């Protein structure tokens, strides 16, 4: 018995020793490239391209609606410790200039505008920032991250390119699978929480109506609600899409009013239900397609 206890104590000490050691190593130097991204989809792209060579953190915490985010000083400390900072661009990060001005070592930290080279959409005079909701534009964003990684870590170029190609082909496959079936649709209008799906609409020739605008701003006025009811009835909308962070109650009320069902949709601005980027996009395309067919 005593021997058993001693053995147990030894393995426990060993275990704590090992755990303590790994933790310390990680805190000091993991040898990985530290990437800070602004929002959740970019985290997924950076992880897909960098895999085990990178460590990715997100400025906007999980479960927060990024249009309302304000960075805190601890976020800026963290940002200054990273090797690469990736932002979405196109006005998604309203706080961008403020954050960029706090970067001390501008020669060391590589700053990446993931929207570089994007083919953008302008709605109501504003550029729509929700690029990642297009599989094609997401590929471009991931490519910008890949290029930045190769610039600062040339020796692993092949690995980054291989990872990128693998991710890109998953996006392409999902796109082509959907292109065919969406082409055959007659109904092309859907109603959602905020105007985030402009790029997805462009890819598949659809139109969106939404409770809130492209920057998830604006009160839902009685007039706006009336317009949505009318639009939904005229277009025989059977499903109202609900976003967790954009007036979900209004979407539910609207659905009741027009006799439609409510279905969840992901803007992917924050990670939801443990689904990764490709899973969330596949889900979105499935529910939108099913609501229109
Ligand atoms: Zn948004």
From TrEMBL:
A Pfam family annotated for this UniProt entry: ZnuA
GO molecular function: metal ion binding
InterPro entries noted in UniProt: AdhesinB, Bact_metal-bind_prot9, Lipoprotein_PsaA-like, ZnuA-like
Gene Ontology biological process terms, A to Z: cell adhesion; metal ion transport
Keyword list, A-Z: Signal, Transport
Origin superkingdom: Bacteria
SUPFAM superfamilies, sorted: Helical backbone' metal receptor
Family: Belongs to the bacterial solute-binding protein 9 family.
Protein name in the entry: ABC transporter substrate-binding protein
Organism of origin: Clostridium polyendosporum
């Amino acid at each position: 018995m005593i021997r058993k206890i001693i053995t147990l104590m030894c393995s426990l000490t060993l275990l704590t020793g090992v755990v303590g050691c790994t933790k310390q190593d990680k805190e000091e130097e993991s040898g990985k490239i530290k990437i800070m991204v602004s929002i959740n989809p970019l985290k997924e792209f950076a992880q897909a391209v960098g895999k085990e060579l990178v460590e990715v953190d997100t400025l906007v915490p999980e479960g927060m609606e990024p249009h309302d985010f304000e960075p805190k000083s601890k976020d800026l400390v963290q940002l200054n410790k990273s090797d690469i900072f990736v932002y979405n661009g196109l006005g998604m990060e309203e706080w961008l200039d403020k954050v960029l001005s706090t970067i001390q070592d501008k020669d060391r930290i590589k700053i990446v505008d993931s929207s570089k080279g994007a083919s953008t959409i302008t709605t109501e005079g504003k550029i729509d920032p929700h690029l990642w909701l297009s599989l094609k534009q997401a590929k471009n964003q991931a490519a910008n991250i890949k290029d930045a990684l190769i610039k600062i870590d040339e020796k692993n170029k092949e690995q980054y390119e291989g990872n990128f190609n693998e991710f890109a082909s998953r996006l392409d496959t999902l796109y082509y699978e959907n292109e065919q079936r969406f082409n055959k649709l007659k109904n092309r209008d859907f109603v959602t929480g905020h105007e985030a799906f402009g790029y997805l609409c462009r890819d598949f020739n659809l139109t969106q109506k939404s409770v809130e605008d492209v920057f998830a701003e604006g009160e839902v006025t009685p007039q706006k609600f009336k317009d949505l009811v009318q639009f939904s009835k005229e277009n025989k909308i059977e499903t109202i899409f609900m976003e967790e962070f954009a007036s979900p109650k209004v979407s539910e009320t609207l659905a009741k009013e027009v006799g439609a069902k409510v279905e969840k949709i992901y803007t992917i601005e924050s990670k939801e239900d443990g689904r990764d980027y490709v899973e969330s996009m596949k889900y979105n395309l499935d529910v939108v397609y099913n609501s229109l067919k």
